[in-house]
Design brief:
Elements (H helix, E strand, L loop, with lengths): L1 H8 L3 H38 L5 H25 L2 H23 L16 H27 L3 H32 L2 H25 L1 H14 L8 H8 L1 H31 L3 H24 L4 H6 L1 H21 L3 H25 L6 H33 L9
C-alpha cells in the first residue's frame, strides 16, 4: 500500500491528479466514517442504558421501516439536486440534529442522568434511528458520488487510499474521544461529532473548487439520464432485473445477518459486565479503536493485494469464511473476551477488504444503478439483514438459542 502511494508521487501528472483527488475524498470519507463510529458507539451506549438491551433487536427492525420514507426522499432528491448540494443539505441536517441530541441527553430527567431504563424513553429510540439513517445515507451518497467520477483504473489506484482515509478517520475519532466519554459522557461526545459533521461541508466545497469537473458531471447526468424513469421503486426494479446488482445485494445480506447476531451477543455480554454507562461506553470505544486500528494496519500493509492478485471473487469469499468460523467458536464458548476479539477481527477485515472491494463492483454500472439501486442495496440490504439477524436475536431471548450462537 505504501509503495503504491509513493509511486504516485514519482509518476506522471495524471497519477498525481489522482492522488490529490483521492486524498481529498479520503478526508471527506474519514470525517463521515469517523462521525458515524462516534455516533454508533454512543447510540448503543445510550440505548442499552436508558431503553434496555432487550429492545435493541426491535429497534433494528423498526429502523428498516423508518428508512422507507427517508429513502423515498433520497431517491427524489438525487433526481433533482446536484450531489455536492446533497452533501451540504444532509450534513447540515445531521449536524443540527446532533446539537439537539446533545442537549436532550444532558437533561436531568429525559437524559442519561436518569438511570431507570424503560421502553417509554423516546430519546433513546430517536437517537438510534437518527444514527442508523446517518450511516446509511451519508456513506451511500459518498460512494455513489465517488464511483460516478471514477474510472476502473483510477479506482484500482485510488480506492485503497480512500478506504485508508475512512479507517484513519474512524480510528482517530474513536481514539481521541475514548477518554472523553468516560470523563464527560455521551452529550459532550455528540457535541464534538456535530462540529466534525459541519466540517464535512467545508471539505466538499474544497473538493468541488479543486475538481470543478465533478460538479459539471453531476448536473449533466441528472439532465440526461434521469428523465425516463424516476420514482421510489426504480432502484428496486433495476436490482431485481439485473443479476449482477442482485448478487451485490446477497453479499450485503449475508454479512449483515451474521454480523447482527455476533454484535448483539457481544454487547449483551459487555452491558452485563459494565453497569455504569460511561464505563460501558468506554469499553465500546475500545472495541471501535481496535477494529479501525487493525483495519488501518491491514490497508497499509497491503490487504488490497488480495483483490489484485486473487481477484474480486476470492476477496469477497474470504470474509464469509472467517465469519462462519467465528460463529462456531462463539457458539462453543460465549466469553466476553472471545466475543470482543471475534467482533474486532471480523469488522476490521470487512472495512479493510470487503467494503472497498464491494464498492468497485458499482463502477461499470449505470448512473441509475450507482445512485438508486445502490441506495436500496445499502439501506434495505443492510437494514433488512440486520432485521433478519434481530429476529434471530429476539427468538434466542424468548425461545432459546438458535444456530451456533448463544450466551452460556
Amino acid at each position: 500500500m505504501l509503495g503504491v502511494i509513493f509511486s504516485f508521487f514519482s509518476s506522471e501528472v495524471e497519477k498525481r491528479r489522482t492522488i490529490k483527488k483521492c486524498g481529498l475524498l479520503s478526508i471527506i470519507l474519514g470525517l463521515i466514517v469517523g462521525v458515524y463510529w462516534i455516533l454508533r458507539v454512543i447510540k448503543d451506549n445510550v440505548f442499552f442504558k436508558i431503553v434496555g438491551p432487550s429492545y435493541q433487536p426491535v429497534a433494528k427492525i423498526l429502523s428498516l421501516l423508518i428508512m422507507i420514507p427517508l429513502i423515498f426522499l433520497y431517491s427524489h432528491l438525487v433526481d433533482k439536486a446536484p450531489r455536492h448540494r446533497m452533501f451540504y443539505s444532509l450534513a447540515t441536517f445531521y449536524g443540527c440534529g446532533m446539537l439537539l441530541f446533545s442537549y436532550l441527553l444532558n437533561h436531568p430527567i429525559i437524559g442519561l442522568s436518569n438511570t431507570q431504563a424503560s421502553p417509554d424513553r423516546i430519546v433513546g429510540w430517536l437517537l438510534y434511528f437518527f444514527v442508523e439513517s446517518f450511516g446509511s445515507l451519508m456513506v451511500a451518497l459518498f460512494w455513489s458520488f465517488t464511483s460516478d467520477i471514477s474510472t476502473p483504473q483510477s479506482a484500482q489506484q485510488g480506492y485503497p487510499i480512500v478506504a485508508l482515509g475512512a479507517q484513519v478517520g474512524a480510528f482517530a475519532c474513536t481514539l481521541l474521544l475514548r477518554n472523553s466519554v468516560r470523563t464527560y459522557g455521551a452529550p459532550y461526545v455528540i457535541l464534538v461529532a456535530s462540529f466534525l459533521t459541519f466540517l464535512i461541508i467545508g471539505f466538499v466545497k474544497t473538493f468541488i473548487f479543486i475538481e470543478p469537473d465533478a460538479k459539471d458531471i453531476k448536473v449533466t447526468k441528472l439532465k440526461t439520464k434521469y428523465k425516463k424513469r424516476t420514482g421510489f421503486f426504480e432502484g428496486l426494479r433495476l436490482m431485481m432485473q439485473n443479476p449482477y446488482l442482485f448478487g451485490i445485494f446477497i453479499i450485503v445480506l449475508f454479512y449483515g445477518v451474521i454480523n447482527s447476531i455476533l454484535d448483539f451477543q457481544f454487547k449483551l455480554l459487555a452491558n452485563a459486565a459494565f453497569v455504569d454507562h460511561k464505563a460501558f461506553g468506554a469499553y465500546l470505544f475500545d472495541a471501535a479503536i481496535w477494529i479501525n486500528g487493525l483495519a488501518v494496519l491491514a490497508i497499509i500493509f497491503g490487504v488490497n493485494n488480495i483483490t489484485k492478485r486473487l481477484g474480486i471473487t476470492t476477496s469477497l469469499i474470504f470474509l464469509p469464511v472467517l465469519i462462519g468460523a467465528a460463529v462456531i467458536v462463539l457458539g462453543l464458548r460465549a466469553d466476553i473476551a472471545i466475543s470482543f476479539w471475534i467482533v474486532v477481527l471480523c469488522k476490521a477485515i470487512n472495512y479493510a477488504l470487503n467494503q472497498p472491494t464491494k464498492e468497485q463492483l458499482y463502477i461499470p454500472t449505470s448512473t441509475d444503478a450507482k445512485y438508486k439501486s445502490k441506495a436500496w442495496i445499502d439501506v434495505f440490504g443492510s437494514r433488512g439483514a440486520k432485521s433478519v439477524g434481530s429476529f434471530i436475536n429476539i427468538w434466542q431471548a424468548f425461545c432459546g438459542p438458535m444456530m451456533f450462537v448463544f450466551i452460556s
